[in-house]
Amino acid sequence: MGVLTSFVTAWKLVLTREALLIPALIYSIISLPQLLMQFFYSGESGTVMAAGAAYSIVIWLITPFFTGGLLATAARAIRGEVDLNYFVSSGRKRYLSLLLAGVIYMLAVGASLMVLLLLALVMGAGVGAVLSGDLGAVFALVFLLLGGLLLILVAIMLNFYDVGVAIDGLDPVKTFKNSFSFVMSRPLSVFAFLLLSYSTVAVIYLPVMAVFFYHLLTNLPELTLEEFAAGRLPAPDFQTGVLITLLLIITGTLTTCFTNTYRAVFYVNVRR
Questions:
Q1: Residue of 29, 32, 45, 269 with fewest CB within 10 Å of its CB?
Q2: What is the reported pTM?
Q3: Dihedrals φ, ψ of 170, to 5°?
Q4: Sign of the CA dihedral with 16 first, then 17, 23, and 27 last
Q5: Distances from the Cα of 6 to the Cαs of 12, 188, 260, in angstroms?
Q6: Running DSSP on this structure, what letter comes out for residue 17?
Q7: b (16+ CB within 10 A) / e for 152-162
Q8: What's the CA gap between 89 and 27, in Å, rounded?
Q9: What is the Cα–Cα distance from 120 to 132, expressed in whole angstroms?
Q10: Rounded Cα distance, 16 and 178, in Å
Q11: pLDDT digits (tens, 9 = 90+) for 32-71
Q12: Do 163 and 267 meet the contact criterion of CB atoms below 8 Å apart?
């Protein structure tokens, strides 16, 4: 089965190819400040929040380079040896196309979400005016749930848009049609692939989440009721901070490397 054989092949590549692990490690370290803020920062400083938003934009801008390089390198690694020079050249070659495709993807999903919310409000208000307010609210909620499921399905259909750019060299528009055709021609395999992929990522993150929640539960009594109501998080001691930082680097490296490698291997294998 393509899903399982690709899974095994992906892990073999992750554990044996420096050209995949080293870029994933670098990306994980670059992304670390953003992750640490999500875990520990809960203040209301405008300066810190602005800095965090600016750093998120930086991460978004460099992600296409790493994604393109990792996907192309993983696809080539199936057939033979690869090196860091190939990763760099692939990332540079596909950068602009992946960046533009990413913008199109975000705009499409964002616009669909806005239309969904607007339709839910309008139809809910209409039903409420004709029948009753409570019934209108229920109708709007059901419409949102069904629309949300449809939006998730669309996102799944377009899930391989970056793979098409990185591996096949498709342009930022044609790659969405390719992704849709790829998913529609093998929906059960794609569903199994996504299920196995997300489950693996969840397992990888278990250690860091266990340490974080242990820290949270053991230090929660130190917070006042007002701090807890404001969403404040207890500050970690030095040992806990170092441990979580190291775990985030390890898990970030593994998940970045695995998810891109698995997607590339699966994409290549099931089309043979």
A1: 45
A2: 0.86
A3: -70, 155
A4: negative
A5: 10, 15, 12
A6: -
A7: eeeebbbbbbb
A8: 16
A9: 16
A10: 30
A11: 988 777 666 555 556 667 777 888 899 999 999 999 999 9
A12: yes
